[in-house]
Structures are given as structure tokens and as C-alpha cells.
Specification:
Strand order of the largest sheet: 1-3-4-6
Radius of gyration: 19 Å
Helix content: 55-70%
Shape: globular
Structural class: alpha+beta
Largest sheet: 4 strands, mixed
Distance between the termini: 22 Å
Length: 319
Amino acid sequence: MRFLLGAEQRAFADSLDAMLTAADTPSVVRDWSRGEHASGRALWSRIAQAGVFALAVPEEYEGIGRRPVELAVSFVELGRHAVPGPLVETVTAAVLLTEPGPAERLLPALASGEAMATLAPSGSYALDGDAATTRLALTPDGLRLAPGHGPVRPSLDPARRLTALTPGGELLTCDPPVTHALTTARLTTAAQALGVGLALLDRTVAYAKQRTQFGVPIGSFQAVKHRLADAKIALEFAGPLVFGAALSMGPAEVAAAKVAACEAAYATARTALQLHGAIGYTAEYDLALWLTKARALRTAWGSPRECRALVVNAGDRRW
């Protein structure tokens, strides 16, 4: 089976890439890390106008209809440009809001970008609860609104600002949505990680052509070529898994895609850091924005061990 993008999907990815390139996302990321959300909200509105959030919202609630493949395409580009904010959480919330009353009340604003949602399992930390306008908690009895949030806690990735959600809000769905939430969140996290890895590889290849040792570019050294080739192969293998999982939306397939994409991005980050040398460790250098994101996405919405266990258990049941 071939998982190649169509002409319209490639054009959509190219349009997002052009828009985000012009947006100077590194400065937006640094503003967001300091808790300054104005530039991030402006970029959020432009992403919404491009139709990204509408891809998770049914047409009857002013969306385009739920299209997981196109959603994965868009999240690769969002990861490629290190866009901050609760992107995964917003589309996951949109997928979970199925009851007519809450859906009619909340989904149009999510699709248009007017609202920004975050959610987390009860008792864990939510991403960007201080910036989100809609906060949701996944509880044993269903999906609930969270009336508030706690103080911001530090994260490995400064742009991923963590807060505890205040429990006890309105019950929006009576069906415990954890499995469905994990599937959507893991797919979009995998696509985002794939984009992060591709950006790290592109930046490292460009740097290897410019940096010289012994009078020649380091990219001419065979050891460097091997490291970059390994990163390229891992990312190339992860891509079809991500888009194949988007077609099936099976929990095990999505978990496998998340492991492949996040591990490929993390391995590429390690290669990028090693080949950049000391400059790669400096927070002022833009590479750091992707390095920290690759590490944070690796465990977001399920660690590699958890995802691998799901894949293995699914295989055992089939046999």
C-alpha cells in the first residue's frame, strides 16, 4: 500500500509552509515562552484561517469535516516551524466534543481560531492552561470543563507551559473519552514530531555544508554523512507510518506511528546537537527551539514504552 500525498494535500502543505516561514516563528516561540501571548494568538488566527482547526470539526459546526490525513499533513508543517501553543489539545478537544449542546456552543469558536483549548487527564498537567480559553479535563465519568488553572510550572521545552486544571466543572460528555482522546492526540503529536525532525535535519545539513574543519566542510566527512543518513532514513520510514495511521485511526497503528516519529525526531535532535557542537547548546541559537521540542514530544501523550506496549498487546490479541 502506498501512502503518498495527493496534489491538493501537497499544495496545502506548501501553503502552510510559506505562511509560517513568513511569520518568523522563532520570535513567536520566544514570546510564548515568556508568557507573552499576543504574537502567538495572531499566528493562531492565521493558522485557523488556513483551515487547520476546521479539519477536526464537523461541517454542521462550521468546520470542514473531520479529516485526519489532512490534519496530519498540517501538523507536520506546524512541527517543522516549531509553532507554540496547545495545537494537539485543541484538535483533540474538537474531536471529543460530540454532544449536540456543548458542540454547538464550543466548536465554531475552535474552528475559527477565536477559542484555544487545552485538555489533560484528571490529575495531570495541561499544556498552556494560562493561554487557553477553553480548559477540559478527561475524568472517569467523562469530559468536563475546568473552571480554572493553577500556576505555570517549568517544562523541558520553555514554550510548553504546564498548568494543573481546577476540577469540578460542567460535564460535557458522559462517555469516558480517554481512548479516543489518546488516539487523536498521539496522531497529531507524531505528525508534529515528524515535522520537528525534518526541520532539525534540514538545519543540520545546511550547517554541515558551512562549518569547516581542516579546510573542508564537515559534511564531506564520512562519519558525518553516516549520521545524517541514519537520521534521514528514520524520518523517511516514520512518514508513511504517520499517514497510514491517519487513514486507519486504529489505536495500535497510531501508537506505532508515534513511537517511530518521536524516536526519529529525538535521534535527529541528538545528531543535530552533536554536529553543531557547542553552539547547539546555547538557548539563543534557534536550533534549541527544535531540540527541546523533540525531547518534550517524545513523552507527550504516551511514552515510547506505553506506545510499544499497546502495539505488542494488539499483536498478541490478533494472534
